[in-house]
Structures are given as C-alpha cells and as structure tokens.
Amino acid sequence: MDTPLVDLSEAAFVHPSARVYGRVKAHAGSSIWCNVVIRSEAAHVEIGRGTNIQDFVMIHTDPGRPVVIGANCSITHHATIHGATIGNNVLIGINATVYGGAVIGDNSIVGQHAYVRDGMVVPPNSIVVGAPARIIREADNWLPNRLNAAFYQRNARAYAAGNHRAWDGPEFEAWLAETVAALEAEHARLKDEEGA
C-alpha cells in the first residue's frame, strides 16, 4: 500500500488488514475497514470525503472504467464495486454488486444482494433491489444515508484512537441526538434552496 500512487493520508481510519493497490485516493474523513481489497491496475479509484468502505468490500477497475465514489457514502459489508460510479450520499447494501460502467445517482440506496448490471444508470433518489437490479421507487434518502455515513465517520475517529465502542453509552446518545438534529436542519435548508 505504501506506493506513490496510493494516497490514504487524508483518511480518518484504514484498518491494517485492508489491501490497496494501484492508483487510489481516499479523501478527508473517509474510512477503509477490515479485509477490504482495492485493486486498480488499469484505471483509478477515488473515495469521497466522509465515505466508508466497510469490511470485506471488493473494489476493482477495468481499462477505461475507474471507480469513483462520492462523498458521505456507505459501501457496506461484502459489496463489490467494479468499474462503476457512485454519487454522493449513497448506500450500497450488504453483498450488493455494482458492475461495469453502472452509475448510481445521488441519495440512492442499492439493496442487499442486488446486482446492478453493466451500464445501468440509476437516477438520483432511487431505491434499487433485485438481481438483476430494478428501481422500485423514488425516495429522498439523503437523511438516512447521511446519518449512516456519520456513524462511520465517528467510528473511524474512535478506531483511530483505539476505542472500539463508539456507539455505546450516554455520550453516544447525546452525539446521536445532536447529529440527527443538525442533519435534519441541513436537509430542510437544502430542500428550501431547491424550492427557491
């Protein structure tokens, strides 16, 4: 992982078991968890600000098909991202696969075990399930997806400090209430700006 083309310096936490090869950039506040594998022999991988790449995720590129993941995303356990583009504030469910030139729009959720086929374009604010994947409805997932990312941003800082119980106790409950209120206020402001 210690190569000139791998830049994890801004990440909040990178687990020692993660394996990262090729040309990879992780932006501020991102995190890369246990047994993640990132390989980019042909194109590049970019992990957005505050995004978490959870345990056992596989990220791989193809020639001409980088993996670009936006800000405040959660790529959850055992997911595979292969030569695809993920927007901002997206949640990719456990064991889902996003493949070959697929594009997932902002604020979307890809459900557990979904298979997003080659070249599928998912509009923003979609919920996608199934294998092959289909869009089952439109929904504004900004708030739950941002909250999930915030949990992992907190966890990354805690793990970096050696604390493996960041989601427990009265201090966590206070943080959660404050974070939910702040995100709700930010979401309301964004909706007001959209309507203006």
What does this structure look like?
By secondary structure, this protein is of the alpha/beta class. The protein has one domain (1-196): UDP N-Acetylglucosamine Acyltransferase, domain 1, CATH 2.160.10.10. Helix content is 23%, strand content 32%. It is built from 2 helices and 19 strands. The chain has helices spanning 142-160, 170-195, and strands at 6-7, 13-14, 19-26, 31-32, 37-47, 52-53, 58-60, 67-69, 74-75, 80-82, 85-86, 91-92, 97-99, 103-104, 109-110, 115-116, 121-122, 126-129, 134-138. The strands form 2 sheets. Strands 1, 3, 5, 7, 8, 10, 11, 13, 14, 16 and 17 form an 11-stranded parallel beta sheet that branches. A hairpin with a 4-residue loop joins β18 and β19 (134-138). α1 (142-160) runs antiparallel to α2 (170-195). The termini are far apart. The mean pLDDT is 96.
